[in-house]
Write a structure and sequence with these properties.
The protein is an alpha+beta fold. It is built from 3 helices and 11 strands; from the N terminus they run αααβββββββββββ. The protein has 2 domains: 57 residues, no CATH class; 112 residues, Jelly Rolls, CATH 2.60.120.1340.
Length: 184
């Protein structure tokens, strides 16, 4: 029996120490156990979870991308011509069709060209029977000059347009008109 006693004492000491360690974990929480099992900080874990959520949302089609896309410009050439009218009149041969949905989600349309003579030109939406907002350019001098409109108010859908103009005296000539289409 003398040999069994030291083993019993050793077992009691080992279980006693282990019990204190279990009691320590239960009362203070598991931060010591967590610190022993991982070397990643809380910030690294949050960053990892944010990246996982981002890729899951991207694959599900909820977001397009993390980076901002650059603006892409494209140009559509139009036909010009002459007009000699004191009231707004169509410049013949300038009909065109435009559907901004073919270019993307965010589309900005403006137009530019050269005008010679005193008068004004603008785009007319023949589908919706209205002058296109912010498309009018007025020239008060007789020489040839270039013009650039700001972003115009183009209505959705496939619409028919043409260029119209009016003059204060004589003939005005519109040359090299084109649409500038910016997509983002």
């Amino acid at each position: 029996m003398a040999l069994k006693r030291p083993y019993a004492v050793i077992l009691l000491v080992v279980f006693g120490l282990a019990g204190w360690k279990v009691w320590d974990v239960v009362t203070r929480g598991n931060e010591n156990v967590l610190a022993l099992t991982t070397t990643r900080t809380m910030e690294e874990r949050v960053t990892s979870l944010e990246n996982r959520v981002y890729y899951l949302e991207k694959n599900a089609g909820l977001i397009s991308s993390k980076s901002t896309s650059k603006a892409k410009e494209s140009f559509v050439s139009l036909l010009g011509g002459d007009i000699n009218s004191l009231d707004w009149a169509k410049i013949f041969g300038t009909d065109f069709t435009l559907d901004t949905s073919l270019y993307g989600k965010t589309v900005e349309v403006s137009w530019q060209g050269w005008l010679q003579g005193t008068g004004a030109v603008r785009l007319y939406d023949s589908t919706n029977h209205r002058a296109v907002d912010f498309s009018e350019y007025v020239s008060s001098s007789d020489g040839k000059k270039s013009f650039y409109s700001k972003a115009m108010s183009i209505w959705r859908g496939q619409n028919q347009y043409y260029v119209e103009g009016k003059t204060t005296n004589g003939v005005i000539t519109l040359s090299a008109p084109r649409l500038k289409i910016v997509t983002r």
